[in-house]
Amino acid sequence: MLTLQSNFSLKNYNTFGIDATARFGVEVHNLADLQTLLRSEEYQEMPKLILGGGSNVLFTKDVDGLVILMRIDGIDVVRESDTHYWVQAGAGVNWHQFVMYCVENKYAGLENLSLIPGTVGAAPMQNIGAYGVEIEQVFDSLTALHVESGELRQFNHEECRFGYRESVFKHDLKGQYIIASVTFRLAKQPTFHISYGAIQDTLAEMGVSAGDITIRDVSDAVIRIRRSKLPDPADIGNAGSFFKNPEIPTVQYQQLKLAYPAIPGYVVSETTTKVPAGWLIEQAGWKGYRDGDAGVHTKQALVLVNYGGANGHDLLSLATRIQTSVFDKFGITINPEVNVI
Predict the structure, then answer these.
(1) Mind listing the pLDDT tens digit for each residue in 178-204?
(2) Which of 111, 134, 136, 337 is catalytic?
(3) Catalytic pick among 114, 181, 219, 241
(4) By the 8 A CB rule, do 89 and 48 touch?
(5) Where's the FAD-binding PCMH-type domain (predicted)?
(6) Which residue, 133, 197, 234, 240, is most buried by CB atoms nearer than 10 A?
């Protein structure tokens, strides 16, 4: 049963806590209701915005259209081989809860992505990643509905055209499809990714020896690290990492290394190096900065925060000033990971 509300407040549906309003809002709990909604003549021509956890969006204005709150649930093992499980989850499933379900059942591959806010449906759209793992490494396929026709379509790995925090759904097919479910190919025997960030040190602090590591241990270590560095949106408004880590020519990185010997970098290819945006922002003097109720987190410069009364323009203005400052200092352009509306 679909229940549409007019003048729908979005304040409780975005982790920045921005007080924006949508012309209409509706929760969708199953595929049939979503198809009915998309085929409705009353709403067919209306602009639509899909919200899962609202953890990767910054509202700078009201939404003159229909906001669809994705609540399609369910987790199922749809296939199994000697080496892998294929696990399908509804687009509205909470991402961290899904990861915990997989960890509990010893389905390996998602443990490095523990405690990332949001929903399953947003994961492939953004190609979410953390601590050396990205969704595309374990992605199998997804089911999506065409917004105009309501018809179902399956997308395989190649068709999603994954990139760093990118997919075809952010570019060529932006706004054309709504993801309904995602299937992941997860291993029975784990391959541990523990060289990125502080995972190894945290495992040692936890008393876990190299030969005894489990996916639960890796998940626990990641959760411990994230909680020590990142603010809980329930306590202070934020959307996690606001900027992507820029990838620059290795020649440029080597030149910067001469001027800034401490600058970290991770090899992406023979010609490209990734530089942590948080380090650049901190070195440019923004860590802990506050202007009214818009600020930069005191422990992680990559996170912009709303102390309570900031609006979207306040946060976007701060983000723009940070971008200009980083470019002026390092000659590097940092781009938002958060979707600005």
Answers:
(1) 999 999 999 999 999 998 778 999 999
(2) 337
(3) 241
(4) no
(5) 16-189
(6) 240
Determine if residue 38 is left, alpha or beta; phi over 0 gives left, psi from -120 to 50 gives alpha, anything else beta. alpha
Which two tokens mark 44?
Answer: 């067919």
Of 165, 185, 224, 226, the active-site residue reads 165
Residue with tokens 């080496």: 83
Query: CB-based burial of residue 179 (10 Å sphere; 0-12 exposed, 13-18 middle, 19+ buried)?
Result: buried
Residue 204 is given by DSSP the state H
Per CATH, which fold does 5-70 belong to?
A: 3.30.43
The CATH code of domain 237-340 reads 3.90.78.10
- Residue 59: both structure tokens together: 């509202």
Instruction: Count CA atoms closer than 13 A to 35's CA, side-chain side.
Output: 10
Q: Which fold has domain 75-205?
A: 3.30.465
Look at residues 296, 295, 294, 300 and name the one whose alpha carbon lies nearest to residue 314: 294
Q: Which two tokens stand for residue 13?
A: 């549906």
Residue type, 156: N
> Residue 194: what residue type?
I
Cβ-contact 53, 69 below 8 angstroms: no
Residue 216 annotated among the catalytic residues of the structure: no
Locate 136 and state its tokens.
């595309």
CA distance 335 to 338: 9
| CB distance 48 to 68 below 8 Å | yes
Residue 165 is a catalytic residue: yes
Task: Indicate where the chain has its CATH 3.90.78.10 domain(s).
Answer: 237-340
Tens of pLDDT, residue by residue over 143-182, are 999 998 888 999 999 999 999 888 999 889 998 999 999 9
Half-sphere exposure of 134 (CA within 13 A, CB side): 13
